[in-house]
Amino acid sequence: MSDKDGKSTLGFGGSGRSGQVKQSFSHGRTKSVVVETKRKRVVVPKPGATQMTEAQKEKNPLTARMAGDPSKRPAGISDAEMERRLKALAAAKSREVEDAANRLAEEKAREEERERRRAEIEAKEREEREREEALRLKAEEEERRVREAEERAKAKEEPKAVERPARAATATAARPAGARPAAPDRAAIEAAASRAEKPGIATGPRRTDRDRRDSGGDSDAKAKAKAEDSRRTGRLSLNQALDGEGGRQRSMAAMKRKQDRARQKAMGNVRAEKQVRDVQLPETIVVSELANRMAERAADVVKSLMKMGMMVSMNQPIDADTAELVIEEFGHKAVRVSDSDVEQVIDTVRDKDEDLQPRPPIVTIMGHVDHGKTSLLDAIRKANVVSGEAGGITQHIGAYQVTTESGAVLSFLDTPGHAAFTSMRARGAQVTDIVVLVVAADDAVMPQTVEAINHAKAANVPMIVAINKIDKPAADPQKVRTALLQHEVVVEQMSGDVQDVEVSAKTGQGLDELLEAIALQAEILELRANPDRAAQGAVIEAQLDVGRGPVATVLVQNGTLRRGDIFVVGEQWGKVRALINDKGERVDEAGPSVPVEVLGLDGTPAAGDVLNVVETEAQAREIADYRSQAAKDKRAAAGAATTLEQMMAKAKADESVSELSVVVKADVQGSAEAIVQALEKIGNDEVRVRVLHYGVGAITESDVGLAEASGAPVIGFNVRANAPARNSANQKGVEIRYYSIIYDLVDDIKAAASGLLSNEVRENFIGYAQIREVFKVTGVGKVAGCLVTEGLARRSAGVRLLRDNVVIHEGTLKTLKRFKDEVKEVISGQECGMAFENYDDIRQGDVIEIFEREEVERTL
Predict the structure, then answer these.
(1) Where is this chain compositionally biased, Polar residues type (predicted)?
(2) 455 labelled as ligand-binding?
(3) What's the pLDDT score for residue 98?
């Protein structure tokens, strides 16, 4: 039977009567089974035990209210137990109030700090604007004075020009006819000439005090400068046109330069100080962009980085810490930017208390492999998921929703127990409200049990211990409770605060108590969420389906996810095309704590990414593009920010390291991540496994091409290669291996990596021989007459010549003879003749050590 054929697994129910259940099998076979249900033990309190005195009622009003109304108290709970649980509930509420007050105080302090910084920035900008306005007004005032002085000078010259012809005509008329004009005074002419030669002395008529007061000191200076310069200004007056004075006209650029000089002179000719800028600094930034934001030359920035030991060009990105050092060196201020402005459209408004509604708890089943986690969940769901798991172990994280007999709704997450699925267990602990730690009663605490305890403590979520397989003869629940004490988990039966329940997934024993414990813990937590806001959730698992495209299993944490919503998740975005619940049914919406499969993504997200609903498609695409580019820049910066010494050290270290390259494709994102983490742990100082590429979906031609270029095999976990990829692999000789159990995959890769290790050479001593006499043989050289004193002498073995227990020579034998015959070996106690290869310095009394070398294969 399976969980999709509409049939329920064998369960127990009823009122304690025995009866028969008819089982149906394939091919029309049936079988009748006698079923007997034991009546549930109910502890009835003694009469009068629930009566409380007035003083007790005043001291514990909650207990008095629960004791006065027996319908509100669970069966079999004493007054002391009820009082203890209500005290725990009150303490939890008080802690929640204190946490809320602390959060408000922290938020208020952060808001005050932001206001103070904003006021400082505004004051600085206001001072800068006032200074620039003062400089501009001063320059305009100076220019206005110059213009007024020129206009006054023109106004005085025009009446004099009109006056001179009239005065000359009057003098001519006054003179008698025939009279000559009076001779000019010689002294006056000489004085006028001397004044014309001296600079700064006017040659015209002397001005009165009133004229001086009208023109002012500045205009007098300008008039002197005008008298010195014989060239025309940029403006053409009527007198200049009539007089016909020639000369070069001043250009507009010259006029602007003149005005700039006057402005600098008015400002005191002070050189402007270097402007200190606030540089916006993201996580990664290109060197040229950093130079532009500082208003500095890119070559200077590159020079500064080279002084720090970083060989980068102006087009390479650097990390924020290095960029901050450069900014401080140039005298600017770095302003860290944590998130881009495009992500501000994501709704992060705090929900009001009146909008919050109760939500189902999210329960994660964790524990060691083969401790019965999935079987326990199947017994609760009345399904049979275990039969569909490869190898009988869970290798995917699953999300289910269960409605108990009392009407309570629970959301369960089933995590794998294998050591490779650490990331999956961590994700399950982060999104959960309650952790159910499953421990087998016949196996006690194991490594993954300890890891699950650590994940629960890190996530700060309450834990319930379910001691499974209690029906086995070797079950010892007390041993489990004692072993948990070593990891600071104290259960209630040992005066602790962690609930423990003895259950059996096979017989159904203790399942009701487990559900009751979960309901009690959820009631203490008071889980609430706002279903009327934009949805927010976490990606539990993601895969690439052949017919449906990218599919993500999402657990909605807040709000309601509906069909047609536009969302962004990690570096991907999409529009909800369909929502499928854990039973395979299509639904129109999913509220808080509801797990659903979401269709409509443009790519496969990473497991653990957060899903946020946005208003428009443009916003979703912009956020996804920004996150993708930020991730790409971060990866590039991590590779680029390497000093020359680090590069040389890495190259030297990699010379003696052998690499086994692989390409990994899996059915879901979590499995691919777990496989990559497991493979990266394989290896030592001599060999390591390198994952060239990993992803989800079927094996394609591009995967085969990458494997061929690198000489790597392709690993398929629960996926197959499509037809073009199979043909390409056959033509190119690329090996494709398929696996469905992670144990076999890791073992095979470990064996392949072990083959890259160099063999270990061992020496086995097989005998000793003593030289009794040395003979000289023509054509052979010196031959040692030896007696084998220990072991045997072999022709193919290696030999060492020892003289006074010091190795003189190591090599091989050229000949080994007994009498006149060449032999392969000589046993102990017999005499023989030996000659060394390319060595003749042998003496009487030397010892020959005979050994053999053996190569032993090494494994990881």
Answers:
(1) 18-27
(2) no
(3) 92
* Residue 27, marked binder: no
Q: Which amino acid, residue 298?
A: A
Ligand-binding site membership of 373 (annotated): yes
For β-strands 317-319 and 284-286, DSSP reports them as antiparallel
Q: Is 396 annotated as a binding residue?
A: no
Find out whether 367 is annotated in a ligand binding site: yes
pLDDT digits (tens, 9 = 90+) for 4-43: 454 444 544 444 566 787 888 888 788 888 877 666 665 5
Query: What confidence category does residue 184 fall into, taking pLDDT thresholds of 50, 70 and 90?
Result: very low
Q: Is position 415 annotated in a ligand binding site?
A: yes
161-195 burial, b for 16+ CB within 10 Å, e for fewer? eeeeeeeeeeeeeeeeeeeeeeeeeeeeeeeeeee
Q: Is 457 annotated as a binding residue?
A: no
> What phi and psi values does residue 691 have, to the nearest 5 degrees?
-90, 110
Residues 6+ apart with CB under 8 A from 718: 390, 666, 667, 671, 739, 740
- According to the annotation, is 468 in a ligand binding site? yes
Q: How many CB atoms lie within 10 A of CB 639?
A: 10
Structure tokens at 656: 């003696």
> Do the annotations mark residue 417 as ligand-binding?
yes
Is 470 part of any known ligand binding site? yes
Per-residue pLDDT tens over the stretch 439-487: 988 887 888 888 888 888 888 888 899 998 888 888 888 888 888 888 8
Query: Residue 604: helix, strand or coil by DSSP?
Result: coil
- Looking at residue 324, its pLDDT comes to 92
| pLDDT at residue number 788 | 92
Question: Which structure tokens are listed for 493?
Answer: 């039966």
* Helices and strands: H and E segment counts in the chain: 21, 35
Please give the backbone phi and psi of residue 539, each rounded to the nearest 5 degrees, phi first.
Answer: -80, 115
Tell me whether residue 59 is annotated as binding: no
Rounded distance, CA 431 to CA 418, Å? 20
- In DSSP terms, 439 is beta-bridged to 467
What does pLDDT average to over the chain? 79
Name the least confident of 37-51, 536-550, 763-777. 37-51
Residue 16 known to bind ligand: no
Check whether 220 is labelled as a binding-site residue.
no
The reply to whether 469 sits in an annotated binding site is yes
Q: What is the pTM of this model?
A: 0.50
pLDDT at 340: 60
372 is in an annotated binding site: yes
For 581-687, where are the alpha helices, taking DSSP H only? Answer: 617-640, 644-653, 669-680
If DSSP codes are grouped into helix, strand and coil, which group holds residue 116?
helix
* Residues 414, 375: Cα–Cα separation, whole Å: 10
Q: Per the annotation, does 574 bind a ligand?
A: no
SS3 736: strand
**Mean pLDDT lowest for which of 219-233, 738-752, 787-801?**
219-233
